[in-house]
Amino acid sequence: MNQNQLQTPIDYLKGVGPNRAGLLRTELGIHTYQDLLNFFPNRYLDKTRFYKIKDLERNNSEVQVVGKIVHLKTVDQKRGKRLVADFIDDTGKMELVWFRGHKWIRENLKLNTPYVIFGKTNWFSGLFSMPHPEMELVEEYKKNLRTAMQPVYPSTEKLTKSGITNRAVNKMMQQLFLETGAKFYDTLPESIKEELKLIPKAEAMFNVHFPKSQELLAKAQFRLKFEELFYIQLQLLMKNMLRKNKIKGFPFDQVGEYFQEFYENHLPFDLTNAQKRVIKEIRQDLGSSAQMNRLLQGDVGSGKTIVALMTALLAFDNDFQACLMAPTEILAIQHYNGIKELTADLDINIRLLTGSSKTSERREIHAALESGELDLLIGTHALLEDKVKFKNLGLAIIDEQHRFGVAQRAKLWRKNTLPPHILVMTATPIPRTLAMSLYGDLDISVIDELPPGRKSIKTVHRYDSNRLKVFRFIKDEVKKGRQVYVVYPLIQESEKMDYKDLMDGYESIVREFPMPDFQISIVHGQMKPADKDYEMNRFVKGETQIMVATTVIEVGVNVPNASVMIIESAERFGLSQLHQLRGRVGRGAEQSYCILMTGHKLSADSKTRLETMVSTNDGFEIAEVDLKLRGPGDIMGTQQSGVLNLKIADIVKDNDILKLARSYALQVLKEDPDLAHEKNKVIRYTYGQLAKHKNIWNYIS
Ligand code: ADP
Ligand code: MG
């Protein structure tokens, strides 16, 4: 067909005037015929089956029932009236209910005449009811031609109110298929289609919008999902290849004094195999002439810092500077202290720069950076300020899931001829499958092993009614010289209430653990930073035994003597947050505990989260469950990544298709990196369109 036709503005489709076109654009982002074609249903109503009233289930799916109305009555209610019909089949009785349009319904409904009704059911006082059902006389129903599987398109309130109902969208789609003749050319090569038994594009498009059967719908969806994921993977892999070829980086070809000296004489412990492997991967990157862009994943406590330091040593060996940026001041300070200690015997100039650095100090730092006298700058976002200019920054290490925008990164290297190597460290385990889609353009290293000798943290779930027992346990631990965290949720919308919970909790703990035997710290978001740091430090130094806090302690702090983590209202935390909090203990030699406190009333999801925490300490396993519970959009940092704007595939549910698509994309590029072969012509064309335009679905029909 004529491809240009699909670029026709949606205004020109019969039945779509300027008003509707405007709404389609603003509400759904549909500008062209093409956009409408790629506007996929998010579910289908199965009208292939009729339910008997006795077989109705108490769920909210939409069902179809055949029966007749035997009685109609009006019932008074608080505001207005409702119309109620008794509806029966040969197995039982249910009610149909209307809150509006009584007159019309009374005049038009036929008693004792068979109807097909369709809609959602409610369960109320021992009876099923269906509000505002769709109804059709069986006689009429039999006459009409229909698709049994009815697509339901995503919608908005504004659209429905303006009359762009599901039926209207369906009509437009019909019109589109009519006007274009529905001869969509294929976007995948024959070889792949044959191997995977994929149906042709045109047939897939037809059946996704007008399914002829469950089976064809499944084939259509599989074909379209595969295609979507295939091109995304292809794009990510190409980007990665391009970066390796085109973006030159500083070759760190020397493994010199600093690295050797540290490795041979100052390593405080044996590296784990995972650490060794990761360092090797990094060295390979740095030795090549391409810029490194690597994501280092490792659970809390897996020992990422030492890897970062050794990477920095390679930079110094090659006469480059390095920087390390952390998300909070406390964390930056801990990195600074830790790295100072590790490198005490090496001749390295390290400074700390944060928002609270004094002006005179800043001046010194700026000067030392520009002269090249400073080797390593550790700090917070303050590193990105305009005044911070490096003489020759060769490596930027970023701790904890900052994904910098291009502009921010450029700031770091604005004085360089080449971009520095980048190492992003994150403790949020990203399931491999998700990482493939999100960071397909980054290389990934994983530390999947904890240093030896760690006792795994014992996690239990306790109800609030057992609080006294929990307090007794805390007392015993404190008597043994341990320290304890008690963490309260603080969620913005209900901040006042949460704050009250925190203060109530604090008071009850103070009552239960009186001075002078016990010293208690409290830290929360409404305190001044200086007060927070003061309290934090008292706990770090061991002057207080119990730290009552909100989630401000979530990232970073390292108090190896703390062995108990109590999480209050644990049902209100997300899984990854629970896991991060738990990671605050288990850092010393002692057995550590995590106690999840909740009330008795728990939702199914909360139960799953708690059970997951109790059953495993493995961050990756937890991340997989989290992904299933919440969906990828909620996982930290994924929102910014447009990749997840999928039209038809679902990263979690279509995991297998994703893997398949990736393996095919890899294979194609391996054989034919420039997509020059005749058999890949279709791919080259489609990819070219996709590279030109952002949204891949815009141009691959
Ligand atoms: P994270 O990956 O959470 O940043 P850190 O780098 O802070 O972890 O390391 C956690 C603790 O484990 C630190 O006290 C560190 O000294 C220690 N550590 C790191 N690697 C090893 C190792 N191979 N053997 C023993 N202890 C290690
Ligand atoms: Mg760390």
Describe this structure in words.
- The chain has 701 residues and is of the alpha/beta class.
- Among the domains are: 48-145, Beta Barrel (OB fold (Dihydrolipoamide Acetyltransferase, E2P)); 257-447, P-loop containing nucleotide triphosphate hydrolases (Rossmann fold, 3-Layer(aba) Sandwich), CATH 3.40.50; 458-616, P-loop containing nucleotide triphosphate hydrolases (Rossmann fold, 3-Layer(aba) Sandwich).
- The chain is 41% helix and 18% strand.
- The chain is built from 25 helices and 22 strands.
- The strands form four sheets. A seven-stranded mixed β-sheet has the order 6-7-4-3-2-5-8.
- Helix 11 (257-266) runs antiparallel to helix 13 and helix 12 (273-287) runs parallel beside helix 13 (304-317).
- The longest helix has 33 residues, at 214-246.
- The chain is globular, with a radius of gyration of 31 Å.
- Residues 269-272, 275, 298, 300-306, 427, 451 line the site of adenosine-5'-diphosphate.
> Low-confidence parts, pLDDT < 50 over ≥5 residues?
402-407, 634-643, 695-701
What order do the strands of the largest sheet run in, or round the barrel if closed?
6-7-4-3-2-5-8
The CATH fourth-level homologous superfamily of the domain at 257-447: P-loop containing nucleotide triphosphate hydrolases
Per CATH, the class of the domain at 257-447 reads Alpha Beta
CATH topology descriptor of the domain at 257-447: Rossmann fold
Rg (C-alpha, Å): 31 Å
Q: Largest beta sheet, briefly?
A: 7 strands, mixed
- What is the CA–CA distance across the termini? 10 Å
Q: What's the CATH architecture name of the domain at 257-447?
A: 3-Layer(aba) Sandwich
How would you describe the shape?
globular
**Proportion in helices:** 40-55%
Q: Overall pLDDT, averaged?
A: 85
| Tally of contiguous helical segments | 25
User: Strand pairing plus helix content: what structural class?
Assistant: alpha/beta
Strand content: 15-25%
Number of strand elements: 22
Which ligands are bound? adenosine-5'-diphosphate, magnesium ion
